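Appendix B. One record, verbatim.
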Amino acid sequence: MKAYARSDRRPITEWWRTIDRVTVLAIVGLAIFGMFVSVATGSATESRGGPDAIYFFGRHILYTLLALGVLLLLSMRSVREVRNMAAVLYVGALIALVLTLLIGPEINGAQRWLRMGLFSVQPSEFLKPAFVVLVAWSLSEGNRIPGFPGRSLSLLLLGAPMFLFLLQPDVGQTLLMTAVWGALLFAAGLPWGWTIGLAVMAGMMLATAYMVFPHVAQRIDLYVMGSDAGRTQVDFALEALRNGGFIGVGPGEGTVKTSVPDAHTDFAFAVMGEELGLWACMAVAALFLAIVARGMMRALAAQDHFVQLATAGLFLLFGMQAFINMGVNLGILPATGMTLPFISYGGSSLVATGIALGFALALGRKRAGRTYGRV
C-alpha cells in the first residue's frame, strides 16, 4: 500500500507529499480564526449604519476561499514559474499603481484603490510578494555572476514603487518594503558599513515622513504624547483586550468594537481579544510564529541561493505585517493602517497574502528529501 502511494504521481498527491504540511495546516487555522472574527467585526459596522454582519461574513469567506485557492495553485509551481509570475505581477501592479493615482477614488485623503465593478483593488498589496521574489533574484544573480548589478537592480525595484507609494500617500507600505529590502540585502552578504548606512537612511526617511506627511506626524505624536481631544483607536483597542480577559466576553458580546471605526480591518485583533479572550490572541500569535519559523527553516535548508532569499523574504514580509498590526493593537507601535493577514477583512490583502504564501510554499517544496533548485 505504501509503495502504491509513493508511485501515485497525480499533481495533488505529489503536492501533498512535497509541501510543508505543518505550515499549510497553520495557514488553514488562521483562515478559520479569521472567519469567526469577521462575524464580530461585521456587526460593528452594522451598528454604525453600514452593511450587516452577514454581508461582511459572506464576503470574508469568499475572499478567504479565493486566497486559499490561489495559494494552492501557486504552491504547485516550479521555481522558474514563480520567478516568471512574479515579474508579470510586478509590472502589472506597477501599472495599476499609476492608474490608481490617475483615476482612483480619494478615500480619507489617500488614493490607494482602483474600482472594478462591485470591488475595490489595492495594487500595493499585490506588488509586495512580487517585489520580494524579484529582489531575491537580482541579489542572488549578483552573487552568482561577476559584474551583474544585483544591488543596483534591487534598488531600482524598490525605488519605482516607493515613489508611487509616497504619492498616494502610503508611508506604512513604503517602510515595510524598505525593511524587507534591507533584510534581503543583509542576508545576501551586505558589508556592515552598508548595513549601518541603510539603518541611518531608514531613520532619515522616517524623519522626513514625519515632517512632510501630516497624518504620519499625527500618529507618531498620538503614540508619544497621547491625545488631548479624547481617546484614540489604540486606547479603545487596549480596553477591548482588557475587557476580554482570558476567555473573552463571548462571541458577539463585545462593546468596544462599536467605538473603533476600523474594527473590521486594522483592529480586528482587539475585537477578537475582547470576544474570544487572551487564549485566542495567543493562539493566533502562535500560528503566525509557527508559519514564519517553519518558513525560515525551509529557507535555511535550501541549496539554491535564490530560493533561500526569496523564501526568507516572503515569510519575513508575512511575519512583519502581522507583528506591526498586533503591535499597534497592543499599543507598542504607532497606528499604521496595516491589516492582519487572514484575520482582517479585505479582499486585496487576503488574496495577496495567498499569493505570497503560495510563492513561498512552492519555493520550499521538497523532492527526494532535497529542496528544489533551479527547475
